[in-house]
Design a protein that fits this description.
With 238 residues, the chain is an alpha/beta fold. It has nine helices and nine strands. The chain has a six-stranded mixed beta sheet with strand order 5-6-7-3-8-9, sandwiched between helices. The chain has a three-stranded antiparallel beta sheet with strand order 2-1-4, with helices on one face. Keywords: ATP-binding, Nucleotide-binding, Transport.
């Protein structure tokens, strides 16, 4: 395995509350790791630790030179917000050494990858749908051709059509660019379809491995608790 991430005994405590305790796992290049667990289990905190946004103990070791992209769970934009989609992307153009014309060609390619036409560029960010805005965020994260993409529930609150498009983009990135995906999701069908490995977290490690090996009814009951377990059973593939 071409290992790009190694986490050992990762713990996070904020304001005296232990949010994560002694997580250890590895991720190889081109893998799709799904992170699952109940609300408040520390999944987003894990992402924030991986991005260096919160203090932690233990070890997080990214392979040297790895470029990381991040797509947040939600980013609210007021309907009256005056920034256009084009202006939003041009904010990032200063991070590239090539001229604006070349950047626009590069942007057009990334937009097409997520199924968006160039006509969207003139629209205001606040005018486009939630699903379309989520794809804009993915295109934004792809501009630097990251080796790793972190998706924090990228389809939360969007329609099924947009949801399918976003997951197909993930699959395409793995196939064409061998992009490594770290994905937080509550949808077990998605995990079975797209994830090569799963990490089950409820503040500490509950299970990890290939989805069909570790997502047994017993492990899901342990992860979510007996009372909430049946809410997730209908998502298991037949």
């Amino acid at each position: 395995m071409d290992k790009i991430l190694e986490v050992k005994n990762l713990s996070v405590t904020l304001d005296g509350e232990e949010l994560l305790k002694e997580l250890s796992f590895e991720v190889g290049r081109g893998e799709a790791l799904a992170i699952i667990g109940p609300n408040g289990a520390g999944k987003t905190v894990l992402f924030r630790a991986l991005l260096g946004l919160v203090p932690f103990s233990g070890s997080i070791q990214w392979k040297e030179g790895i470029k990381i992209g991040y797509v947040p769970q939600k980013l609210y934009v007021e309907r009256s917000f005056p920034l256009s989609v084009e202006e939003f992307f041009l904010l990032k153009s200063k991070n590239f050494w090539f001229p604006e014309k070349k950047f626009r060609e590069h942007l057009s390619h990334e937009l097409s990858l997520v199924g968006i036409g160039a006509d969207i560029l003139k629209k205001r960010l606040g005018e486009i749908s939630v699903g379309l805005f989520q794809r804009v965020l993915i295109a934004w994260s792809l501009l630097a051709h990251p080796d790793v993409l972190l998706f924090d529930e990228p389809t939360a609150g969007i329609d099924i059509g947009s949801e399918e498009t976003i997951y197909s983009v993930m699959h395409k990135l793995q196939d064409e660019r061998r992009t490594t995906i770290l994905l937080i999701s509550h949808d077990l069908n998605v995990i079975y379809r797209y994830a090569t490995k799963v990490l089950c977290v409820n503040k500490s490690m509950v299970c990890q491995g290939e989805p069909r090996e570790v997502l047994s009814p017993e492990q899901l009951a342990k992860l979510y608790g007996e009372g909430k377990f049946y809410l997730h059973m209908h998502q298991l593939p037949k």
